[in-house]
Design brief:
The complex is a heterodimer.
Chain A: H1 4-25, H2 30-54, E1 58-61, E2 72-75, H3 77-98, H4 105-126, H5 130-148, H6 154-185, H7 190-196, H8 202-220, H9 228-236, H10 238-261, H11 266-269, H12 272-294, H13 298-323, H14 328-360, H15 376-390, H16 396-406, H17 411-435, H18 455-470, H19 475-490, H20 493-501
Helix pairs in contact in A: 1-2, 1-4, 2-3, 2-4, 3-4, 3-10, 3-14, 3-18, 3-19, 4-5, 4-10, 5-6, 5-10, 6-8, 6-9, 8-10, 9-10, 9-13, 10-13, 10-14, 12-13, 12-17, 13-14, 13-16, 13-17, 14-15, 14-16, 14-18, 14-19, 15-17, 15-18
Chain B: H1 2-15, H2 19-40, H3 61-92, H4 97-102
Helix pairs in contact in B: 1-2, 2-3
Classes of the chains: A mainly alpha, B mainly alpha.
């Protein structure tokens, strides 16, 4: 049996303990240990993703117990796409953190928490069991709250508390949905629930779907359940905000899509839900962009931009659910394209913003005037990523927005996408003009004595930003990958098949 | 009944001003989900699911096993939330949200 699906969870969990151990015995080697764990995990993720992309779905029954008694893990081409994003995420966040000058107690602990967080995210991506999914979602939440509240200042305790409240409601609702599905079908194994879903009583099916949408809506920041995100990202700081927004949020999008399409069979049983998602997507785009425009803090501005971009992803998803059939593959591929692009762009924006904020010791946009001349590498990465996220051709951000717009069946969502692009051009352009002002005030504080020139960090953010720009010009390769991934979600024959026959291979 | 208690918990979460009461409301929400999950596996006059006992009907062991895990997660969340309240109190000297906003 191929052990890759379980290794993508086991390696980072073991790694988190290894990092803590190394930190106790030899603190100097902690970064090396974290990098080692991240490399091992990313390699496993890429190997699993390669198998999922090229072959039939990879099914793994833990302890050789098959469902409904045992827990199944599965990697198909759809989850493979998200495993690739996680591979980029874990490696990049370990590289970025190597040069961090922060030596506080919580900063030391956060390396292990990040490894655990990525373990939980990998678990969400590979599991084929509803209750197991709940466990991994909660594990990811606990890790993220540890990361959010790790700073000493009092605002981080408040933000941690608010995020915890939101997460607990979200967790209780997810558990409630699992309960409803268990009562109705007598199982928590996704393939078996999927088999029974078309025959479920309408009220039970609707209740489970509503609970799942609200639960993951809180996690991914659907308006009006987004209230906790900007405050949390601001308190968490840019390094952690990048991990939460660029990677954590995307995996929760994955979970929402997987649950809607697979166990709930929503495109067949409850197609009306996609019209609601369409409206929510448009509301998210308009609210996120307008709030970002009036925001005076760089981190909160980027957080609101994330909320807006969840809207674009939802528009693609809603279009896919409303079309149905094989045409849905193109719409899902568009949504996945934007998901991947937003991961690259937003991590580049947050991590290059980290350098700018570190230099001026303030995250208020007005305090960052003229900062560009002190950190040219970071501002180049920031501008490239900003060009992509606004959607200037021929960047990847433009291509993904274009595909999402092409998938729409109505005029209104396309107009909303256009309006969002114009608003984001205004606020990113404004930031660029302020940051490149020619009269840098003399009042910049002296650089932190411990801070080195973070060459590696700059190289990583430049690589991410260039990747986001280049993806638009590598259309053919990107598209075949995306279509393969989208087929994994829409045509579930190879996902359901092996699980129902029995023994997984 | 389940929905009623669920809404009592959510109502308390929104209305209560005191952070400890907010955590209590959350516990109510968690508790009712756990309770209703457990009752799904219940059967009157059924034996515990131990295979050596020569009984023909057993209660469903799956909800019990699942809820054990859910309770552990709930305890973990409560501990984290209370830790935040302690930090909050150390800084602000109060745990009433409205009093903090007035300052």
């Amino acid at each position: 049996m191929n052990h890759l699906p379980v290794l993508v969870v086991v390696i980072p969990v073991a790694g988190a303990f290894l990092i803590s151990l190394v930190d106790t015995v030899r603190p100097a080697f902690k970064s090396t240990a974290a990098l080692l764990v991240a490399t091992a995990h990313s390699t496993t993720l890429v190997a699993a993703a390669y198998r999922g992309m090229t072959g039939p779905a990879l099914l793994y029954s833990v302890g050789e117990w098959i469902a409904p008694v045992g827990i199944s893990l599965m990697v198909d081409s759809f989850s493979a796409f998200f495993l690739l994003l996680l591979a980029i995420g874990h490696l990049a966040s370990a590289l970025v953190r190597i040069e961090s000058g922060d030596r506080s107690e919580w900063a030391r602990k956060s390396a292990a928490l990040i490894a655990l967080f990525f373990a939980a995210l990998s678990g969400i991506t590979v599991t084929a069991d509803l209750f197991n999914l709940f466990i991994f979602v909660e594990l990811a939440t606990v890790c993220s709250i540890g990361l959010i509240a790790r700073k000493r200042h009092p605002g981080s305790a408040v933000a941690g508390f608010v995020a915890l409240m939101a997460a607990t409601i979200s967790g209780a609702l997810l558990l409630f949905a699992v309960l409803v599905l268990y009562v109705a079908t007598g199982t928590v194994a996704m393939p078996l629930v999927a088999q029974a879903a078309p025959d479920l009583p309408a009220h039970l099916h609707g209740m489970a779907t509503a609970a799942i949408i609200v639960s993951f809506g809180i996690k991914i920041g659907l308006v009006p359940m987004h209230f906790w995100q900007p405050r949390t990202y601001h308190a968490a700081g840019t390094t952690v905000a990048a991990i939460l927004s660029a990677f954590g949020l995307k995996i929760h999008v994955y979970a929402l899509l997987r649950l809607l399409w697979f166990p709930l069979q929503a495109p067949v049983v409850l197609p009306g839900v996609y019209s609601i998602l369409l409206v929510m997507g448009m509301v998210n785009i308009l609210t996120g962009h307008s709030m970002a425009m009036i925001e005076r803090n760089l981190v909160r501005m980027l957080a609101f931009s994330s909320i807006a971009h969840v809207g674009y992803i939802l528009l693609g998803v809603a279009a896919a659910g409303r079309i149905g059939g094989s045409a849905a593959v193109y719409a899902v591929a568009a949504a996945l394209f934007h998901t991947g692009m937003h991961t690259l762009m937003k991590s580049a924006l947050f991590w290059s913003g980290h350098r700018l904020i570190h230099l001026s010791r303030s995250s208020r946009i007005m305090d960052l005037g003229g900062i560009a001349w002190r950190a040219p590498g970071s501002i180049i990465a920031f501008s490239l990523a900003a060009l992509a996220i606004i959607g200037i051709p021929p960047t990847g951000g433009f291509a993904s927005k274009w595909f999402v717009a092409m998938a729409q069946q109505a005029l209104l969502p396309v107009l909303v996408i256009g309006a969002g692009t114009v608003i984001s051009l205004v606020y990113y352009g404004r930031f660029f003009l302020i940051a490149t002002r020619r009269d840098p005030p003399d009042s910049f504080p002296a650089p932190h004595p411990l801070s080195l020139r973070p060459r590696l960090q700059t190289a990583v953010v430049l690589a991410l930003a260039v990747a986001a720009v280049m993806a638009g010009t590598r259309d053919v390769q990107v598209r075949s990958l995306l279509l393969r991934a989208a087929e994994g979600l829409v045509d579930q024959a190879d996902f359901v098949g092996p699980a129902l026959i029995g023994r997984g291979r | 009944m389940t929905l009623l208690i669920l809404f009592v918990g959510l109502y308390g979460l929104v209305v209560c001003d005191n952070l400890i009461r907010k955590i209590m409301s959350l516990t109510v929400v968690q508790g009712i989900v756990v309770m209703s999950f457990l009752t799904t596996g219940f059967q009157a006059h059924a034996a515990a699911p131990i295979l050596s006992v020569p009984e023909s009907t057993f209660v469903d062991p799956v909800p019990q096993a699942l809820m054990l895990t859910a309770i552990v997660i709930g305890v973990c969340f409560n501990a984290l939330a209370l830790a935040f309240v302690v930090k909050y109190f150390q800084h602000h000297g109060t745990i009433e949200i409205s009093e903090i906003h007035e300052r």
